[in-house]
Fold this sequence. Notes:
By secondary structure, the protein is mainly α. It has 9 helices and no strands.
Amino acid sequence: MDLRSTLLVIGGSVCSFKLLNTIVRLLPTPVQASKKAWRWRNISTSLAHSSLTGAWAVLCFYLQPQTVEDLISSHSVFSHSLVAVSTGYFINDLLDLAVNQSFKQSWELLFHHSVVISCFSVAVTTRLYLGFAVVSLLVEINSVFLHIRQLLLLSGQRNRPGTEVTAPRPSVAYVTTSWLNMGTFLVFRVCTLGWMARWLAGHSEHIPRYILMMGTAGLSLISTMNTVLFYRLLRADFLTNTHNTSKSH
């Protein structure tokens, strides 16, 4: 795709995710989530993005396995469109966070989104490092379960009905989601980001300095955030008893 087509795809993506958010607003919201209706809409939109781009990234490597051999200059309309669509989502989500949440509450995600948008913008405008960007989107496979977990918490479906007061017991849906979340976290976040860092270090001689600095800074930031996130998930779902966990959420 040329630059004009790329910008059109990004713009169309921003509008599409905004439209999706509006559609979710018109749909019934669970009673327990009604006080956090914006949060429900935001996470629902994020779930749609994760489901779409996670599957799309897998398809990119399945249909074009040669991409793995050259993450710098390998290019296809399919992978280019994926990164452009994802860029549009992150722009939309950044604006949504900036408008609806205080900076104190959202600064981590705002910083994360800014870094991702910067890195993806380089890839889609130069048509270089698209393969590397597609690898990073494999992380979205884990995000699917992370967002489902958040929606279960917002809708009050963490515990089995009737056990909330006396002896809270996690619901089957929540337990299953928690285990899938942790499993995919280790595979698609820890392993993927570790592989990306190793690849970046191994190809540093072939990458312009400003790109190398951007990639290193982005991976360092995201790795730090993922370490904190992993600890929070581990503590909330596996290291804390159910009663205390339900209070903390």
